[in-house]
Design a protein that fits this description.
The chain is of the alpha/beta class. It is built from 15 helices and twelve strands. Helix content is 42%, strand content 16%. Strands 9-10-11-12 form a four-stranded mixed beta sheet, sandwiched between helices.
Length: 330
């Protein structure tokens, strides 16, 4: 059980663990041969030596949940006690990934002399963390340690997206790991406790840049590339009002009265955004909203996932707002 986070229902990891088929639990050589034949015919997916998952379950999992299935497989056969770390801990904290996560679970081996990574698992040979969180039969690094570890070892945009997510205000209905939150003060304490450590400067840069006002992973990635392109930093989640009500925008540059909006696909198809409207109606409503914003003497530019991750495309969007770089692009 994940203590202190209000976990009361089975986690995705629990549900996946219950579906695993372990070779060591087959009773006879005949049963093992039948399992291997079924795997060869595509009815089972081998997650690691000795651990299989029915292919019909695997095929319906998201990339994030496929990674959780590999974690469940590692937990099922690795000798304990285990401490999951890095991207594995991030997956269990339900932090957002950019693209597909790694396929190899990460654990801390508890030795400062180096870890030994096999083909299906990554072992980090570092000192055991002072603070871990119980998660059933194993443990994961605390949220603060997880964020620092990711910031030390992964890309800047991936670490910023996860840290922004953890700094945001709690959302209605969130429970379990999704309800966990972090502060910059706690991240600073974690950084200081780890000195000296590889990647410390990278992790500090993530901490300083992260902003809990970022409203989505796409907005976090946009902010990173706005910064890398050398443009001035925007204000986030600024509210405009007119006679029809309030409108919150993703990015605002007051000097040019420019508004930037990230358009993720979810805005047009996910129920928490559409509120029962058809896709066509959402598009119309967004156009009307944009017209209301333009009526307030502003320029509006919108971009999607492809443009947020393409610096040339995003640069063109920012220039269209009248913005100019204030320093050389990185």
């Amino acid at each position: 059980m994940l203590h202190g986070i209000g976990m009361t229902s089975p986690t995705p990891l629990d549900l996946l663990s219950s579906q695993l088929v372990l070779v060591r639990e087959t009773l006879t050589p005949g049963e093992r041969r039948a399992l291997f034949r079924s795997a060869e015919r595509g009815r089972f997916v081998r997650l690691r030596p000795g651990v299989y998952l029915p292919a019909d379950i695997w095929s319906h999992l998201s990339a994030e949940d496929q990674y959780l299935a590999r974690i469940a497989a590692a937990v099922a056969v690795e000798p304990g006690p285990l401490i999951l770390s890095g991207l594995s801990a991030a997956a269990l904290w339900r932090l957002p990934f950019i693209g597909s996560p790694s396929i190899r679970p990460e654990i801390i081996s508890g030795t400062a002399n180096g870890g030994r990574s096999a083909g299906s698992i990554v072992r980090h040979g570092i000192d055991l963390p002072a603070s871990v969180v119980d998660f059933g039969p194993f443990a994961i690094t605390s949220l603060s340690r997880t964020l620092v570890d990711v910031a030390r070892t992964e890309s800047f945009e991936a670490a910023v997206a996860m840290t922004d997510f953890s700094l945001r205000l709690r959302q209605s209905g969130e429970t379990g790991p999704l309800a966990a939150r972090m502060t910059k003060e706690a991240l600073e304490e974690e950084l200081e406790a780890l000195l000296p450590t590889t990647g410390h400067a990278r992790a500090r840069a993530v901490r300083e840049f992260a902003n809990g006002l970022s409203g989505s992973v796409g907005e976090s990635v946009s902010r990173v590339n706005i910064h890398r392109l050398g443009f001035p930093p925007p204000e986030l989640q600024v509210v405009f009002t007119d006679e029809k009500g309030a409108m919150e925008v993703d990015f605002w540059w007051i000097d040019v009265r420019g508004i930037g909006e990230f358009d993720g696909e979810g805005k047009y198809i996910r129920t928490e955004y559409t509120h029962g409207r058809t896709t066509a109606q959402v598009v119309i409503d967004e156009k009307n909203r944009e017209n209301r914003l333009r009526a307030q003497d502003t320029t509006v530019s919108r971009w999607d996932w492809r443009e947020a991750r393409s610096r040339p495309a995003l640069r063109a969007k920012l220039l269209s707002l009248g913005l100019r770089p204030i320093r050389r692009a990185r």
